[in-house]
Amino acid sequence: MTYWYDIFNEETWQELVNNGGKEDGFNEDAISRVNEMQSGDILICYCRKICTWFNAYEIADKLPTSEKGIFKDYDCPIRIGIREIKFPYLKPENGIPVKETIRKLKFFTGINGNHWGPFMHSFPRKMNVTDGDYLMDELRKLNKRSH
What we know:
By secondary structure, this protein is of the alpha+beta class. 22% of the residues lie in helices and 28% in strands. It has one domain: Roll (ph1033 like fold). It contains 3 helices and 7 strands. Strands 1, 2, 3, 4, 5, 6 and 7 form a 7-stranded mixed beta sheet that branches. A hairpin with a 4-residue loop joins strand 3 and strand 4. It is globular and about 40 Å long.
C-alpha cells in the first residue's frame, strides 16, 4: 500500500461526493503517476483554498478514461475507482491545517517556511509511509470528534 495526496477545493470535493464518491479524475499530465497507483493505495485529501488535510479514500481500481465530467470546472479524463471514503463526516473546513503539519511531515523537508504552496500543485504525489500513517491517525482522531 502506498500513500498519495490528492488536491481538492470545497467545490470539487462536494462534486465528487455528489457524484456518488465512487470515482475521481485527474488531468492528462498526471497519467504517469496514476499508472503507478494500485488497488488498496490511499489518497489523502488536501484542500488548497483553505489549506487543510481533510479526508482520505482507498483506490479500488483504475478506470477507463472518460470525458464524462466529475468536476464542472476541470477536465479530468484519467480515472480511478474509489472503494471507500474513509471519513464521510469530515469536510475541508474541518480539516487539519497544513501549517500544523509542516514540521511533522518529512514530505515538506527542504521547503522553506511559508513557501510550501507551489510544492502542493503537482498531484497526485506519493507520500512516505510515516507521513501517511501520521495524517491518517490525525484524521481518525478528528473524525471521532466530528460525530
